[in-house]
Amino acid sequence: MTLLVISPDYASHLLPLATLATAWRDAGESVVVATGPATAGIVADFGFDRADLVLGRGSNPGVIRAEQQPPGEDDALRGFFDATRRGMVATLRYQAEARRNDLLWDPVGRARAVLDVVDRVRPDQVVVDHLAFSARLALVAAGVPHADVVLGHPSALPVGDEVYGYPTAWPAALDAPESELDALRRLCCEVRDAFTEEWNAALDVLEPGSAPSTDAFAEHGELLLLNYPAALHDPARTTLLPPHAFLGSAVRADPADDDVRNWLAADDRPVVYVSFGSFLSARGDVLATVLEALRPLDLRVAVATGSASGLPDVPEDWLVRPYLPQVALLDRAAVAVTHGGNNSVTEALTAGVPMVVLPFSTDQFAGAAAIEAAGLGVALDPNAATSSDLRAAVRAVLDGPAPGRARGVGEELRHEPGRDVARSAMLG
């Protein structure tokens, strides 16, 4: 049996998808990953074969920097970071407008490239990132059965009267005037309609006479795989989902090097792990506030700085690097300070670690609200929280019920790893 994994050229997308594929690899089956050149090293590290497939203009090998992107994408990335500084609604508006151009880049050309890979690999099963819209368009047009993996909050696939890009829930600390939210929803509806029109036009070129979509953002494969704990999902919303499986998490092996192991062994005080992921680490101003907040606390601190610059000096016994083995450090952490990205949230919960969440964009708002509602952490506005606010939030999480609740969720997630759930669901 051969499994084909289709992923954008972004480490944050490929890592969980590749982790799911290890269930096939360990069963002695062949795995081919179709993705771009920036993440070729990740594919090789997993021991998979690679088919070259470029699905978008940008890429991210692990830490994204605007100056390393192709012309146009660098300015788009800077525009996104500027929007996050203006707040929640400004960021969501910026991302909605960007979807007009970036989610279906060269749709017919990319779709034909996908089908060329399918013809060469001749897979028995296909797993595709839900956000790889051009790839899913190709599979739909050609009638290729596939499992569709949602790597963000489940609301990345809208159901009922939801509109893609408009969060299904908001953390208590983030709000906006009703007029601004109404205008945001209208914009998301306009983008949905334009996106669907473009999807249908490309579909008609690829497979003339195909039934048009009424909402391309709501299209999905035969099986929906949700990289998210079912315990954090509204049961009423679950009833609206198409055939699906909650994977819980797709936590990869991420061993620590000798320096990190030695740092962990040197002291038994509680560890705070801090990371804003591969994108949002560019918000060095917020990261600096976090570091100032943690300085007076009697805690050990590990910080993945990513692309952040201009950070303050920190105590010599802190572990500070652009990149850290997140899974290994979360295994020892007492609390995580995070932007609320899907990998960070699911990996923290699998380790049984509660969170202080500073959401900046997209599904991070709905995810932060879910964490808050489940009593697994606290969410703050990254543009408004002071060092005192953050310090109080870390103390409140550590001293409250969140650690016990997180340990309970972690035990459940470790009992049945997401990769095994995915393989079982796909084999029927």
TrEMBL record:
Record InterPro entries: Glycosyltransferase_28, UDP_glucos_trans
Pfam families according to UniProt: UDPGT (PF00201)
Biased composition (Basic and acidic residues): 408-422
Signal peptide: none
Domain of life: Bacteria
Region of interest (Disordered), ranges: 404-428
CDD domains: GT1_Gtf-like
Xref: PANTHER family: STEROL 3-BETA-GLUCOSYLTRANSFERASE (PTHR48050), STEROL 3-BETA-GLUCOSYLTRANSFERASE UGT80A2 (PTHR48050:SF13)
Name of the protein described by the UniProt record: Glycosyltransferase
The organism's taxonomic lineage, starting at the top: Bacteria, Bacillati, Actinomycetota, Actinomycetes, Propionibacteriales
